TrEMBL record:
The gene is Rspo3. Residues 116-170 form the Spondin-like TSP1 domain. PANTHER family: NEUROHYPOPHYSIAL HORMONES, N-TERMINAL DOMAIN CONTAINING PROTEIN (PTHR46987), R-SPONDIN-3 (PTHR46987:SF1). GO terms for cellular component: extracellular region. GO terms for molecular function: heparin binding; signaling receptor binding. Belongs to the R-spondin family. It comes from Grallaria varia (variegated antpitta). Activator of the canonical Wnt signaling pathway by acting as a ligand for LGR4-6 receptors, which acts as a key regulator of angiogenesis. Upon binding to LGR4-6 (LGR4, LGR5 or LGR6), LGR4-6 associate with phosphorylated LRP6 and frizzled receptors that are activated by extracellular Wnt receptors, triggering the canonical Wnt signaling pathway to increase expression of target genes. Also regulates the canonical Wnt/beta-catenin-dependent pathway and non-canonical Wnt signaling by acting as an inhibitor of ZNRF3, an important regulator of the Wnt signaling pathway. This is R-spondin-3. Residues 11-110 form the R-spondin Fu-CRD domain. Transmembrane segments: none annotated.
Length: 243
C-alpha cells in the first residue's frame, strides 16, 4: 500500500489520503469529488447531492454532475428539476415553452393550456320586478350557468354565467303582507265560535227536554188515578126475570 494511503478512514471511506480525502467508498455509498478552493476532495455519501446523479458500477458507485441548467437529474440527459429561469418539459430545461404549452411559474414546468368550461343553462326564473312576482305586467327573468373548469393563463376566458330578458305576465294584485294569514285566523276563530254556539244550543235543548220529561214523570206520580166511567150500554141491559 502506498504510504499516502490509509486504511483507517472516517466518514464511509474505504481508502483515503490526507491530501485528497476519500479514494474509495464502502459498499452502497457514492463517491463524489467536492471542490474546495483550488483542490478537489473525495467524499462518500449515501445519496448524490443536488446537481448530481448516481451511477453504479461493479467496482465503484459515482456521482456525476447534471447539465448546467438542471438542478436535479435522473441521468445527464434527463432533468427532474430545472434551475431558476428554466422550465421543465420532458426531462429538458427550456427558456421558453413549445407552442401549445404555457409556462407554469409555480411549478416551473411547461403545461397544457386549459380552456374554460361551463355547464348548461338553468331554466328561466319566474318573472319578477323589484323582487316581486305580482303587481306588474312587464318584468325580467334570468337564467344562470356554472363554471366547471377555470382557464389557465393562456386559456380561453369564461363566457357570461347569467342572462336576463324582458317578460310579460298577467297582472295580478299583490296580497297585503299578513292579510291572508289574518283572514285565515279570523275564519278559524269564527268557525270555532259557531261550533261552540251550536254545541251550547244542543246542550240547552237536551237539558230542556230532560227537564220536561222529569216534570211529566213527577206530575204522573202526584196526580190520583181517574176512575173509569161506567158503560151506559151495560147499565141499560134488560134483567133476565125468567126464574
Amino acid at each position: 500500500v502506498h504510504p499516502n494511503v490509509s486504511q483507517g478512514c472516517q466518514g464511509g471511506c474505504a481508502t483515503c489520503s490526507d491530501y485528497n480525502g476519500c479514494l474509495s467508498c464502502k459498499p452502497r455509498l457514492f463517491f463524489v469529488l467536492e471542490r474546495i478552493g483550488m483542490k478537489q476532495i473525495g467524499v462518500c455519501l449515501s445519496s448524490c447531492p443536488s446537481g448530481y446523479y448516481g451511477t453504479r458500477y461493479p467496482d465503484i458507485n459515482k456521482c456525476a454532475k447534471c447539465k448546467a441548467d438542471c438542478d436535479t437529474c435522473f441521468t445527464r440527459n434527463f432533468c427532474t428539476k430545472c434551475k431558476s429561469g428554466f422550465y421543465l418539459y420532458s426531462g429538458k430545461c427550456l427558456e421558453k415553452c413549445p407552442d401549445g404549452l404555457e409556462a407554469n411559474n409555480h411549478t416551473m414546468e411547461c403545461t397544457s393550456i386549459v380552456h374554460c368550461e361551463v355547464s348548461e343553462w338553468s331554466p328561466w326564473s319566474p318573472c319578477t320586478k323589484k323582487g316581486k312576482t305580482c303587481g306588474f305586467k312587464r318584468g325580467n327573468e334570468v337564467r344562470i350557468r356554472e363554471i366547471i373548469q377555470h382557464p389557465s393563463a393562456k386559456g380561453n376566458p369564461c363566457p357570461a354565467t347569467s342572462e336576463s330578458r324582458k317578460c310579460i305576465v298577467q297582472r295580478k294584485r299583490c296580497q297585503k303582507e299578513g292579510k291572508g294569514k289574518k283572514n285565515r285566523e279570523e275564519k278559524r276563530k269564527k268557525s270555532n265560535k259557531d261550533e261552540s254556539k251550536e254545541t251550547r244550543q244542543e246542550s240547552k235543548g237536551r237539558a230542556a227536554r230532560r227537564q220536561n220529561r222529569e216534570q211529566r214523570e213527577n206530575n204522573n206520580k202526584t196526580q190520583p188515578k181517574k176512575r173509569k166511567a161506567p158503560n151506559k150500554e151495560q147499565d141499560l141491559a134488560p134483567v133476565d126475570t125468567a126464574h
